[in-house]
Amino acid sequence: MKAQTLLHLLLFSVAILPFAESATVNPKEKKPTPTPIPTPLPAPSANSEKAIRVTPNVTPENAAFLQRERLDPESVPLEKPVESLKPLAGKPTGEDAIRLQIFLDQSNFGPGVIDGKPGLFTEQAVKAWNEVNGHPIDDWNPALKAARLAIPVAYLEVKVPNLLKKWVNPTLSHDRIAQAKAQKTLAYRSVAEFMAERYHTDVDFLVEINGAKKLAALTADSLIKVPNVKPFLIEEIRGAKFETDAGKSARHAVVDTKRNQLRIFEAAPVALIVEENSDEKQMPKPRPNRSLVATFPITPGQTKFIHYGMWAVKNQVELPTWRYDKSLLETGKRTKDQKKVYDLPPGPNSPVGVLWCGLNKSGIGLHGTADPETIGRARSAGCIRLANWDVIRLPSLISPGTTVEIR
Asked: Considering the domain 18-37+238-270+287-407 in this protein, what is its CATH number?
């Protein structure tokens, strides 16, 4: 137990996330058809994916692999993390926990990393699902029952796709200037990282269910155990720029910086009128709130750089480039010396991830991240970060013109 506790502390101390500043459209990129939001999970294929049951096992051999370097230069771990490394007491465990997290993820109520350890983000996702479906807000049983029916198989065995030459670069530097000068794509640094993000989890959990030795030796066509979630397909993201959509632009998004959650509504929520009840013991029956469309875990930036108030989505761009301006990150002011500004190429390990959703406040937006496992555990500069598998869904839910309230 002491060794595991020490390991968890070490992992947290080196988990560093990138600051977010601003993004620009890569002029070389063509405008393809937008990437669609993940659809409900299909039945497992008998050919390439084999349904399996596994029991997570943490072994001493995992330690060396878990201590691998995974540092990004700018951001800082939170003193009081919102999302704990430990699961909430008394909540589902084992395959039930995995099924629940997968079900919530596929329903657009993001539970964070799928790791079988329900924490605050899973709890918030359950509450949001209950709110939409008219169940008591703190009752986990309806969602758990629905998850068992919708996700009968918790794990799959899948092949590593033959995409590693383009999307995995073990030599990718952590230095921003070196990245700007030498890289064409900010790819994944390992096959394990590639597969972890593909299946909405982290490398640590893949180590638990596969073993460090197997993960370190992954190559194209290797078999690996993963959560049975519809995969995040990085190869289908082409660099689309999204236009205003009348229906989506009428929606309203709320960035709640206190509970680290993005909530998307059909329209700006109206104040609820609650009738006074003479019988204080009689509780009103929950009513479905169909106006709530989706919720996702987020991490806001430093408080001094957060721009509270009402804004609007200005643009949405897949695979954005990113302007690295150290002065802006540290002081909130752009440098006048353009020799100190560097354009970083796009990719899943970009500080802004795979999608930039810019607001009508210069340099501020919602975007992806290079390290989804530390959402709720570390902060950046002034933007709003989501996991890449969550942020890529935004164009299917909101569009330029959507109001965004940061509070």
From this structure: 2.40.440.10
The CA distance from 366 to 342, in Å, is 21
Q: What's the rounded mean pLDDT across residues 348-368?
A: 92
- Going by C-beta distance under 8 Å and a sequence separation of 6 or more, which residues neighbour residue 349? 172, 186, 187, 188, 189, 370
- The pTM for the full model equals 0.79
Please give the single-letter amino acid code of residue 314: K
Of 40 and 110, the one with more pLDDT: 110
Which tokens in the block code for residue 42?
């299909």
If we measure between CA atoms, which residue out of 49, 111, 43, 58 comes closest to residue 372?
Answer: 111
Q: Please name which of 304, 312, 200 lies closest in space to residue 255, comparing C-alpha atoms.
A: 312
> pLDDT per residue over 85-95, tens digit each?
667 777 999 99
> Residue 84: which residues within 8 A CB-CB, separation 6 or more?
119, 120
Q: Which residue, 151, 78, 82, is CA-closest to 123?
A: 82
Over 50: is that where the pLDDT of 54 sits? no
CA–CA separation, 24 and 34 (whole Å): 17
Distance CA(176)–CA(161), nearest Å, equals: 29
Cβ atoms < 10 Å from Cβ of 84: 13
Segment 188-193 mean pLDDT: 96
Per the CB < 8 A criterion, the answer to whether 216 and 66 are in contact is: no
Question: CB-based contacts of 194: which residues, under 8 Å, 6+ apart?
Answer: 160, 163, 164, 167, 168, 188, 234
The encoded tokens of residue 354 equal: 């795979």
224 and 50 Cβ atoms separated by less than 8 Å: no
* Cα–Cα distances in angstroms (integers) from residue 182 to residues 80, 193, 324, 332, 359, in the given order: 37, 21, 15, 27, 30
Report the candidate in 159, 162, 157, 183 with the shortest Cα–Cα distance to residue 172. Answer: 183
Token code pair at residue 245: 């959509």
What pLDDT sits at residue 331?
Answer: 58
DSSP 272-330: PP----S-TT-PPPP---TTEEEEEE-B-B-GGG---EEEEEEEEEES-EEEEEHHHHH
DSSP classification of residue 372: G
Q: Where in the chain is the domain with CATH 2.40.440.10?
A: 18-37+238-270+287-407
